[in-house]
Write a structure and sequence with these properties.
The complex is a heterodimer of chains A (174) and B (485). Chain A is an alpha+beta fold and 174 residues long. Chain A is 47% helix and 14% strand. Chain A has helices at residues 13-25, 42-46, 53-79, 92-118, 151-160; strands spanning 3-10, 32-34, 139-145, 165-171. In chain A, helix 3 runs antiparallel to helix 4. Chain A starts with a strand and ends with a strand. Chain B is built from 15 helices and no strands. Chain B has helices at 18-30, 35-61, 76-100, 110-131, 158-191, 195-204, 212-245, 257-283, 292-323, 326-337, 341-353, 361-364, 367-394, 409-432, 438-444. The chains are: A alpha+beta (174), B mainly alpha (485). At the A-B interface, helix 1, strand 2, helix 2, helix 3 and helix 4 of A face helix 1, helix 5, helix 6, helix 7 and helix 15 of B. Chain B: InterPro entries: NrfD-like (IPR005614). Chain B: This is Polysulfide reductase NrfD. Chain B: It is found in: Cell membrane.
């Protein structure tokens, strides 16, 4: 479905930050903000909720720890018990290194896979971008518009808040 | 948009704007390879050829091609393994530990340092795998059910801990590095002219668009990866040191090994980062990003870890004497005055004495001296591993089995070959990937602001607009992040 966007282009992240607050205060819904680097404070300004990835990471780590302990206890303690170096079959202190490494392994990979999945990031042949300068040095505020939108008013609002340009763009796939 | 603070030294010099950062970093990726790069790659490929030849000889004729004997069953292979793993540690340290400590200066060097980690660990992994003699059975180190029935790997063995430590370390470092690269690949993709570059960088960039929500998650992921990688990097070299410390060989059986090895790893790693950065900044004209301040800061870390290593050497000696174990005492006397005295004193000179020169400000801020120093430290740290491994093994409890070790030409070939492998990978990385993390450098470009954010809007009589209704959009609508992406 084709979508139409009004794009406010900003030159400075602090200007953008104020603009985001003001535009939202003015009752305009922001579709998305594209920036070349993370801007601190923009989460609050846009009302982005805190990511729950840390919770996911914790549980992935817990899975890794449980798996490692189960694996070592089952393999050396039950499936093929052997006395090695005079240690008991289930030598928990000797199991610490592998348990730690697998905790980290599961935690990191689980979290990173979750991050790519929920963000819908995957290798693709072509990436539609609203304004290619948003990965270089411009800060782009995208506002979805339709026929009823008063473009002059919106342009004025963005201009007053420090936008150096206001463009319109249509995107069939976005 | 460059703000200069009267208090702090700028992290990036030359009054760069955001666009300049993109230009300067992408220039290398977009331009045709220059003659110096081609020359360097040719040398690296030549050494890589040496590597392949030596590996072929090792696999075809067996481990007998190496200089090992019944007494010294570990020598250059494990020396090189520990050396390479140690070098890798600085990358994770810069990207993880310094991120947690909010050291903003890391941004200019973390990308190359992380790449160095990946390539150093690849080189390191070659040695234990080749030492198996039959690398096609390398999967036996993992707990797979095998053809002998349910015989499992020995989880009590530090060598198996190494398997888990190194493979976790490698894969986590790889993911950390790649996730950091994704936004920069997007920058290159959006600038790309040719169709091949467009498709290639689009695939590599995973469709990154830099939306605020993605950045927010990206930062969360980076922070947690850093938090988890910090104990990971300490654990890896601790476990490597346990390969020795859990044995009963005099000179190895030491509780000081884990912290001592970790310090040594960071020491040699920073030396290698310095070597690489000093070359990279000149070859790719990145003097404004990797400034003299960066070099001085890295020098300081190298000096501190070098001093820790020096204290560890002295402590080992003291404990050998204090323990009253005659075998321990002999092992250390033999190191300093025995047939390998030259290795021991090379190690002492390179690792304990030379880094102390960094206390002198003029040395710390001198590029040629830093370069020489970093090479000396790398040599010294190689000798450290050699001294620990070979001098402990060649004379242990049984005088009838005392021998000397000398490397064969294949030993040397594999070692020199891994240096070729490392530099081949690093040069390819430097050509096709952005060597400096553009996104992170841009985010610290205004770091030196001390008067708060600067407003440079076009309307000097800026006022907050009154809440107004835009047609088609309900008033006080919140940002909706759930319905699209």
């Amino acid at each position: 479905m084709t979508k139409r966007f009004a794009l406010g282009i900003f030159d400075d992240e602090d200007v953008l930050l104020h603009a985001v607050e003001n535009v939202r205060e003015a009752g305009v819904k922001i579709y998305e903000v594209f920036t070349p680097f993370p801007i601190h404070g923009i989460d609050d300004a846009l009302g982005i909720e805190r990511s729950r990835l840390p919770i996911a990471a914790f549980f992935f780590g817990l899975t890794g720890l449980s798996f490692a302990l189960w694996m070592q206890i089952y393999m050396l303690g039950f499936d093929w018990p052997m006395i090695i170096g005079g240690k008991p079959h289930i030598a928990l202190p000797a199991f610490i290194p592998v348990s730690f490494e697998l905790t980290v392994l599961f935690c990191c990979h689980g979290m990173v896979i979750t991050f790519y999945t929920i963000s819908k990031l995957y290798p693709r042949w072509k990436t539609p971008v609203l304004d290619v300068r948003s990965t270089d040095d411009k800060f782009v505020m995208a506002i979805e518009v339709n026929e009823n939108t008063d473009m002059t008013k919106l342009t004025q609002l963005l201009r007053n808040n420090g936008a150096s340009e206001v463009n319109q763009k249509e995107m069939s796939k976005f | 948009m460059q703000h200069v603070s009267p208090v702090r030294e700028p992290l990036v010099t030359g009054g760069k704007t955001y666009h300049d950062v993109t230009q300067d970093v992408c220039r290398q990726v977009e331009a045709a390879p220059n003659i110096r790069w081609m020359a360097a790659l040719s040398v690296a490929l030549l050494l890589l050829g040496v590597f392949f030849y030596s590996v072929y000889r090792t696999l075809w004729y067996g481990i007998g091609e190496w200089g090992l004997n019944k007494t010294v069953g570990w020598a250059w292979d494990i020396t090189n393994f520990v050396w390479w793993v140690g070098i890798g540690h600085a990358g994770t340290l810069i990207s993880a530990v310094l991120l947690l400590f909010r050291q903003k200066w890391r941004t200019s060097i973390n990308r190359a340092a992380e790449a160095m980690t990946i390539f150093a660990v690849i080189c390191a992994a070659m040695f234990p795998v080749l030492h198996m003699g039959r690398p096609w059975l390398a999967f036996w180190v993992f707990p797979f059910q095998n053809t002998f029935g349910s015989l499992w790997v020995n989880f009590n063995s530090p060598l198996l801990w190494d398997v888990f430590a190194i493979s976790t370390y490698f894969s986590v470092s790889l993911v950390f590095w790649y996730t950091g690269l994704v936004p920069d690949f997007a920058t290159i993709r959006d600038r790309a002219k040719g169709p091949i570059a467009k498709v290639a960088y689009s695939l590599l960039s995973f469709g990154w668009k830099g939306s605020a929500k993605h950045w927010s998650r990206y930062e969360t992921v980076s922070l947690i990866l850093a938090g988890v990688s910090t104990p990971l990097v300490l654990s890896v070299h601790t476990i490597v040191s346990m390969d020795f410390a859990t044995s009963v060989v005099p000179g190895w059986h030491t509780t000081i090994f884990p912290p001592y090895f970790v310090a040594g790893a960071i020491f040699s790693g920073f030396a290698m980062v310095l070597t690489l950065m000093l070359i990279t900044r000149v070859v790719f004209k990145l003097e404004d990003y990797i400034t003299i301040e960066h070099i001085a800061l890295m020098n300081k870390i190298m000096m501190i870890t070098g001093s820790i290593v020096g204290v560890a050497y002295i402590t080992e000696f003291f404990i050998a004497w204090y323990s009253q174990v005659e075998f321990e005492q002999y092992a250390f006397i033999n190191r300093a005055t025995g047939p390998y005295w030259w290795a021991y004193w090379s190690m002492m000179t390179c690792n304990v004495i030379t880094p102390q020169l960094v206390w002198i400000r003029r040395v710390r801020y001198s590029i040629p001296l830093t370069f020489i120093l970093s090479i000396i430290v790398n040599i010294g740290m190689w000798f450290e591993r050699f001294v620990i491994i070979v001098t402990s093994l060649h004379r242990d409890y049984l005088p009838s089995s005392w021998v000397m070790f000398s490397p064969s030409i294949i030993d040397i070939g594999i070692y020199v070959g891994t240096i070729g492998l490392f530099f081949t990978l690093f040069l390819l990385f430097a050509k096709f990937f952005p060597v400096i993390n553009m996104a992170e450098v841009k985010s610290v470009l205004k770091y030196t602001v001390d008067n708060g954010p600067t407003y440079t809007g076009h309307d000097p009589h800026h006022h907050t607009p009154q809440p107004a209704t835009t047609h088609g959009v309900p008033a006080s609508a919140s940002v909706n992040y759930d319905k699209h992406d």
